[in-house]
Amino acid sequence: MAFSPENRKGTLSGILFVAIFAAGATYIAGLGPVKALGLSPLVIGIVMGIFYANTLHNQTPVEWHSGITFSGKKILRFAIVVYGFRITFQEIMAVGMDGFLVSLIMLSSTLIFGSWIGTKIFKMEKDTSILTAAGGAVCGAAAVLATEPVLKAEEYKTAVAVSMVVLFGTISMFLYPVLYTTIIEHASGFLHMTAREFGIYVGGTIHEVAQVVAVPASVPGSPKEMADAAVIVKMTRVIMIAPMLIILGLYLAWDARRAGGEHSGKTKLVIPWFAVYFILVAGFNSFHFIPENIVHVINEIDTFLLTMAMTALGMGTIFAKFKGLGLAPVYTALSMFVWLVVGGFIITKVIVEIL
Question: In this predicted structure, what is the pLDDT of residue 83?
Fold first, then answer.
């Protein structure tokens, strides 16, 4: 047990060790050049954790490992629950049916397509395929973190998925403003989008929340409705983490029973209760019982806890475990990226036209 009398000191030391790394990641993410790139503390944290894992890992006392593991498991689940304070049901209602449908279709199609192409076409193992697909389908690194406990995946698989999300999410952040200013804004017919339509497109297809915020800000003279639509559609995707994880848990249990033959009846259904609690927290937040300034502080603390979790996962990522993966993760993430950019544009246009 992590907090048994004999392990308590080592566990607390390990948690403090991770927290120091997370504080460093938070500081770096706030620096001007890094902030301009839209890199969140979560991303900086996992990079720092991976660097540590492949350089100084053997210098850390063994007793601290339980604290590092606690940060990557228990603190992670708690932080995902508290993430619900970033969302209200009113925001989801405000985006309209077209924004909701774009979110739903892009999430489900990207998750299914990414999981399928990763395992069937590029022969990547299932956990890494699903984690990579979840990151592209929902909200980047946070979605990968939320999916990892359901799969019980190893740390290095999470790191692979996060690295792919960071790579193509960053490309998106620079690509979308160029597409809008050079083509979409001045085009006629099907290629043209209004500011609101482009906002829905951005929120429905770009990986990280920070990247979604950065895109409208990078469009010269972009109207407020573009940024509002982008952020609200994005947060609609975020709240869909919970039903996605519950459905994924049901699917994994069914798949295990199907593959288990005569022992299938013994397969235990694992419900990600932290996802249920996430919805409850979002529902509570919708009543605005807590002042906005307090909610802001809660969200800042939650970002730090998520950074700790990412850092801890990075600390369990040894490059030697990547052998054999080859370029399959890159091909999988690239395929999803093309789908998000091209397929997302078509779906957004069709849904908006219909409604």
Answer: 82
Query: Using CA atoms, how far apart are residues 18 and 11, in angstroms rounded to an integer?
Result: 11
194 conformational bin, left if phi > 0, alpha if psi -120 to 50, beta if neither: beta
What is d(CA 88, CA 254) in angstroms, rounded to the nearest whole number?
A: 32
- Residue whose tokens read 């609690």: 277
The CA distance from 119 to 125, in Å, is 6
- Segment 24-65, tens digit of pLDDT: 999 998 998 888 776 778 878 888 988 998 888 778 888 998
Amino acid at 172: S
Which residue's structure tokens are 């700790």? 308
Q: Which residue has the tokens 């739903």?
A: 104
Yes or no: say if 74 and 21 are a contact pair by the CB < 8 Å rule.
no
pTM: 0.74
Q: Which residues neighbour 52 within 8 Å (Cβ) at sequence distance 6 or greater?
A: 21, 314, 315
The DSSP annotation for 138-149 comes to TTTHHHHHHHHH
**Beta carbons of 78 and 72 less than 8 angstroms apart:** no
The structural domains of the chain, with segments of one domain joined by +, span: 8-354
Note the pLDDT of residue 267: 46
